[in-house]
Amino acid sequence: MTAFLTDTLGWRFLLALVISGSLWARLTLEQNPQRVDVYPTELPVEARGLPANLVVANELPTVKVRVSAPQEAWPSLSPSSFRVGVDLAGSRPGLVQADVIVETDPSLRVLEVTPAKVPVRVEELRTTTVPVQVNLAGSMPFGFRAGDVVLNP
């Protein structure tokens, strides 16, 4: 008889727990449901982790993101809510197809990034010395005179 009561109360408790959890989840989602949509503004991509002797030689394209977020959070979203980049650590000169990485607030979930990879042209940074010479041509208008020439690269 004791085993019967224990088993019956155990199942009742488990059933009550499942029902109450389901009810809580449903009511929470009804009050602030998740909205899945494409963020309306294209987001700029930034290069990260590039070694000091390399530079990005092309303009990085913008991307679109599909996001899942609580309905109440959508009006406060802005482009600054997302940090979009490509990790170029360990890159070498040439054309690289880099994966786009999106960092955002933990309450948001990025579902899709279009395009998922972007082309990045990485080139070596070089410095060179070039001689510069100033040639003054023509004459100054009446009332003006030429000053000393100053070169500042």
Structure overview:
With 153 residues, the chain is an alpha+beta fold. The protein is elongated. The model has no long low-confidence stretch (mean pLDDT 85). Helices cover 20% and strands 32% of the residues. It has a five-stranded mixed β-sheet with strand order 2-5-6-8-3, with no helix packed on it. Strands 1-4-7 form a three-stranded antiparallel β-sheet, with no helix packed on it.
Concise account of the structure shown:
By secondary structure, the chain is α+β, with helices and mostly antiparallel strands. The chain has one helix at residues 2-31; strands at 34-38, 46-48, 54-56, 64-70, 82-87, 94-104, 109-114, 117-124.
Task: Please give a handful of descriptors for the protein shown.
single chain; 153 residues; alpha+beta; 5-stranded mixed β-sheet; 1 helix; 20% helix; 32% strand; elongated
Topology:
Elements: H1 2-31, E1 34-38, E2 46-48, E3 54-56, E4 64-70, E5 82-87, E6 94-104, E7 109-114, E8 117-124
Parallel strand pairs: 2-5
Antiparallel strand pairs: 1-4, 3-8, 4-7, 5-6, 6-8
Mean pLDDT, nearest integer?
A: 85
**SS-derived structural category:** alpha+beta
Beta-strand level of the residues, as a percent range? 25-35%
What general form does the structure show? elongated
Main sheet attributes: strand count, strand direction, barrel closure? 5 strands, mixed
Low-confidence parts? none
| Quaternary assembly | single chain
Measured as a percent range, the helix fraction is 10-25%
Termini separation (Å)?
Answer: 96 Å
- What is the count of β-strands? 8
What integer value in Å does the Rg equal? 31 Å
Query: How many helical elements?
Result: 1
- What is the succession of H and E elements? HEEEEEEEE
Strand order of the largest sheet: 2-5-6-8-3
